[in-house]
Amino acid sequence: MNEKVDLRGELLPKSFVKKTTSDILLIREVHSKSLIICLICCCLVVSVSSQPLEAKPAQIKVGSKVPEIFFKTLINFPLSSAKLSDFKGKPIILDFSASWCAPCAMAIPKMDSLQRGFGSKVQFLMVNNEGKEKAAKFIERIKQTRPLSIPVIVDDNTLWELFNVRFLPHYVWIDGKGIVRAITNQEQINTANVHAFINGNYQFSSSSKSVAISATALFYSSAISGYKDEQPSSCLIQPAKNDQQQGKIIATNCSVEMLFRIAFSDSAAKTFPLWKTILETKGNLHYSLATATAWDSLKQSATFCYELQLPGADAKTLTQTMRQDLSRFFPLRASLQQRRLSCLALVATGRVPFSVGGKSELESNYFGLKLRNRPVSGLIEVLQQYNRRGIIDRSGILVPVDVELKCALGYVEAVRVELARLGLGLEVVEEEMEVLVIED
């Protein structure tokens, strides 16, 4: 809180407290002059403040007209900078993404295909706020695996603030007149929607920051609800730090299979692995989102929201409570069992790339990774993010390694070729392990 300061107290030292009448008159003169000086200073400050400054633009929502925007830095484009008006008359789709965002990276090939397919009828623009050097390195890795025709705006967070970007992936659809027609996630990026957009059909779902259920006023609550429009699929497990704080689980627009995987997670950071989850049910609980049509037909009936608020609860208590809730609501049984599963094993096949030391580093995205002075587990963890099949460690390597892969990490054969250069390999094995079984 700002303190109110008495100017006289600041201007008059303590030695002025006990003075004669003449001294007092002198003090008044000094005081008056000091006040005049202060007023002049204040006027100068006001005058300076009133000079034209670059105002921070208000956040743009669906239906708003986008002001003229100057893109200071562009890469993968003939020009190093450009303005929004340079694309005047052409529909624009802004793709806010980052090198660490797996869904963003996996959507790039589809976007590039759409850009090539629709040509000059639409313009995709990627927006990255990680700096020019990192963004350029990210694009270079993409180009090592496939051509890329989409320009990249290297942003200093101006656009991210302007469009209130809080979740990734995040797409902003701007028509030829500069009006925002939709804000969506990657699920709406498909041929049918882009074609409709070009032709003036703007039937998209906009993004939203709201959570699944609002229960901030409750001390304890547990609820399951249906699909929530305008929200991405997401999950948060937030253990309480003390007895007075609320432990929370918030799962938004998740399949039944995903909800059980959250409930059987062994930490607040990770859900139970998908590749270790076995479904023995009549329905397909972990439906495919390969096409927008499949998603649109399933999201209303096959996705749910769950929220739990429990005072003083740690991660284990939260997930155990969630299991009980799911068992009461869904006619399914879920349990941990020992089963034999086929998976991939990382093995040493030749001269192992032991680390030469130095700073521990890990950079990765869908199109490659660079690992320095890190354990093999770091390599496996990254590869697992892009592969539905399980990957386990059978390399026997107990010391840090240096590994750089320049390939699409979602393609096993391409990864095998890169690993072979480093004396490593991926072999198919079958082993008994603990799995999550969901059954009728």
UniProtKB/TrEMBL annotation:
Thioredoxin domain: from which residue to which, for each copy? 60-203
Which InterPro entries does the UniProt entry name for this protein?
Answer: AhpC/TSA, Thioredoxin-like_sf, Thioredoxin_domain, Thioredoxin_ResA/DsbE_sf
Protein source organism = Solitalea longa
So which domain of life are we looking at?
A: Bacteria
Give the Gene Ontology MF terms in alphabetical order: antioxidant activity; oxidoreductase activity
**What name is this protein filed under?**
Thioredoxin domain-containing protein
